[in-house]
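A reminder from the course coordinator: this example appears on the midterm review sheet, so study it carefully.

Given structure:
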């Protein structure tokens, strides 16, 4: 990470003196000589030679380029793209590529607004229409279906669609992104790594660096992940793309227990893209860790107003609970259940977040039922951790430990350095009377991130205090 940061600073320092060598009067003359001609900008060089810069592409064209490259686009640009494609397809309904772009744009719009019920069925219809118009070799529509399946947390289907897209077009580098997400979702981390290797052999650039960061994070290589995201953000081609990478950098910083750094990343993401609701929820998370609870509550409310994701409602509810505000917390938990029902009507699998809610704030037996079924469908590390915790809350600690170990043991793929996972394992071990391992994992949770949860971090400290210091062993003379 330090090496990447040094390279970025060197590039800035090398460029800055060149800019400063221009006399101020020349700069002013150049600015005064800028003319707008038919949408293009004519700028005079210091020597008076005109340079014609191409006009910025229209909003819909910008969004189309982003959607086709698998990178985030601004919401207003997405709206413009969708309106343009809908109008175009009313007169040219046999254009398979246009249907595929429209379907993928619907997915991104639904994801950014949490309107799964409205956007995802439209996305599926558009993508399947594209396949009907041109079935053979339609890699773009197959990739769109993979993106949609990932958004619905149907990772097995996503993997199948992504692999079909690559069979149709083996060098289609954009299909590797959804394939990596799908392999991660089903717990096949080796396949995700192989897909990343093939992706990096085919293409480079900010989107690839961001994908690499996700794989590095899952391997426990946090510094490499942060460096990759820094490179991706520096090279991003539009503000929304840059904001998305900064938001992910904020998540990484928070996971490392650095709320001040995380807050800077989240705040810059929101400045660049005011519709970056994940960044606003991240601000809430970081502000709560810093003890700025009023600001944290406000940030969460803003995020939920425009992107009412169940996960945000769970975080806000637990923040209320940590403040002793049980009634507002219950309101958020009820909102979560309502949002899950709405998302399910759009085909989204929300068993993971619902199981987490039921384990801690509802019916632990129901949480076990939900998460066992989820484990059968897609046995990723997130599900292993959640199922283990639900089993613990339901009083089934011996089985719970097996899943907690799977989530945290490198031999089982649990390479993510996660404070919540270490906390869950420590609490299960404490219940089983395994005081040494319990102490070690609870200390690890607080060492990774002392602010990992407004509720659970307090419980980890209390549990450690109850365990006391390890017994002194007499060294033989």
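Designed residues:
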């Amino acid at each position: 990470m330090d090496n990447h940061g040094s390279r970025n600073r060197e590039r800035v320092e090398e460029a800055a003196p060149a800019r400063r060598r221009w006399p101020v009067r020349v700069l002013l003359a150049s600015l005064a000589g800028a003319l707008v001609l038919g949408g293009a900008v004519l700028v005079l060089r210091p020597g008076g030679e005109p340079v014609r810069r191409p006009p910025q592409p229209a909003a819909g064209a910008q969004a189309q380029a982003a959607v086709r490259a698998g990178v985030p686009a601004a919401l207003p640009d997405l709206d413009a793209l969708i309106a343009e494609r809908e109008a175009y397809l009313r007169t040219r309904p046999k254009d398979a590529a246009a249907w595929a772009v429209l379907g993928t744009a619907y997915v991104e719009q639904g994801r950014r607004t949490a309107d799964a019920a409205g956007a995802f069925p439209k996305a599926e219809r558009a993508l399947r229409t594209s396949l009907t118009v041109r079935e053979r070799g339609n890699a773009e529509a197959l990739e769109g279906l993979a993106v949609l399946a990932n958004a619905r947390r149907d990772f097995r289907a996503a993997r199948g669609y992504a692999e079909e897209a690559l069979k149709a077009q083996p060098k289609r580098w954009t299909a590797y992104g959804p394939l990596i997400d799908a392999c991660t979702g089903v717990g096949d981390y080796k396949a995700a790594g192989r897909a990343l290797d093939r992706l990096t052999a085919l293409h480079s650039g900010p989107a690839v660096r961001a994908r690499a960061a996700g794989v590095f994070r899952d391997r426990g290589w946090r510094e490499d992940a942060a460096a990759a995201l820094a490179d991706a953000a520096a090279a991003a081609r539009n503000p929304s793309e840059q904001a998305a990478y900064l938001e992910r950098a904020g998540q990484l910083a928070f996971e490392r227990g650095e709320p001040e750094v995380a807050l800077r990343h989240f705040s810059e993401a929101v400045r660049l893209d005011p519709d970056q609701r994940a960044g606003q929820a991240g601000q809430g998370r970081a502000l709560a860790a810093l003890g700025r609870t009023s600001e944290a509550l406000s940030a969460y409310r803003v995020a939920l107003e425009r992107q009412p994701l169940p996960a945000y409602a769970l975080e806000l509810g637990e923040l209320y609970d940590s403040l002793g505000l049980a009634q507002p917390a219950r309101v958020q938990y009820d909102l979560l259940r309502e949002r899950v029902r709405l998302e399910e009507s759009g085909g989204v699998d929300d068993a993971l977040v619902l199981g987490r809610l039921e384990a801690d704030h509802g019916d632990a037996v129901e949480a076990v039922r939900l998460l066992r079924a989820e484990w059968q469908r897609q046995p990723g590390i997130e599900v292993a951790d959640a199922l283990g915790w639900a089993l613990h809350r339901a009083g089934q600690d011996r089985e719970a430990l097996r899943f907690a170990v799977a989530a945290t043991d490198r031999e089982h793929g649990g390479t993510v350095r996660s404070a919540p996972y270490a906390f869950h394992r420590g609490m299960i071990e404490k219940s089983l009377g395994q005081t040494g391992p319990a102490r070690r994992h609870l200390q690890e949770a607080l060492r990774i991130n002392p602010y990992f949860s407004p509720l659970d971090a307090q419980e980890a400290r209390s549990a450690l205090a109850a365990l006391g210091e390890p017994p002194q062993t007499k060294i033989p003379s």
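Residues 1-48, 50-54 have pLDDT under 50 and may be disordered. Residues 364-467 form a domain with the Serine Threonine Protein Phosphatase 5, Tetratricopeptide repeat fold (CATH 1.25.40.10).
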